[in-house]
Amino acid sequence: MAKRQREEENRFEKIRSYRQTSRKNTPQSPYVSSATRKQTKRKVPVTRRTMPSAPMVKRQGRKVNVPLRTKGAELHLPAFPQIQLGWRFISGAIFFLSLAVVFSFASLDAFEVASINLKGSHRLGAEAILSQVDLVGKAIININPEEIKKEITESFPSVKSVKVSAGLPASVNIQVVERDPIILWQNEESPLWIDADGVTFPVRGEAETILTVLANGNPPEIAEIEAAETDEEEEEEEIASFLEPRYPKTTLDFIRGTLSLTEYLPEDTYLQYDPQFGLGWQDPRGWLVYFGSDTSEIDIKLAEYEKIISTLQAENRQPALISLEFLHSPFYRMEP
What we know:
Elements lengths: L1 H24 L36 E6 L6 E7 L6 H21 L9 E3 L6 H7 L12 H11 L3 E9 L3 E8 L2 E6 L5 E4 L4 E3 L8 E5 L6 H5 L4 H13 L8 H9 L10 E4 L3 E6 L3 E4 L7 H17 L4 E5 L7 E4 L2
């Protein structure tokens, strides 16, 4: 019994060893189901790019070696830092430098105006301009050519146009064009000149004129002929008249009419003007005659004037004044 049992165990051992040997030698079929086959995980290689760190640059100043008198001996001075100037530093330096230049212009005597260079003037002198325009002693950087031009035009109506320029160190150049007078307006207060544009201005220097008018007042102004001004504007003008002299501008029609009367003016007689009666003259026969400020119908007025004279002489009457200011309503005055 024990022998049989031992034989059975040996047979089982042989069968087990045979099965194990057959499993090892049997090739695995390629068509084995994926469900029973162990899946292998594929690992994707991962690479990391590491940026190299910027090397630390240590900027050292430049060392200075100073040779000594002893041969081969040197003195090593400490390194000086190297200064790099940026655009902000440069712009700031330029700003402060410009500011310093401006202050020097305003403080140094070399940049203060002491005189002007006047060109184109025949009657107006530099001294007259300097007496009215504040220029002497001013720094050249404070000179405004447009303001000077305005001041000269307002102070000197005899100037037709003006150009002003300033330059370093203290040069002020003024180029003027003066008006040419054609009429000498001789009034009681002060004589005036009148140019072809009707602008009146004070007499300064010498000039040849076409006509001289003996007047009891200023010539009629454009404002008086065109329209009446408001009370407020009149009050402002009255205040301004006390502060500075006014030189009114008259009309071109009045200038043409005044010049046209020279053709009828008796010899050795001056043309006269009266604010009430207008233009006229002293007749050599002994009376004053006026034709008004409007001389557009002067031929008709002259014919009417001769008719009045004939009538008065026929009656042996001597007038003191004859007025033909209004053509349809002339009148005369007898001697008192």
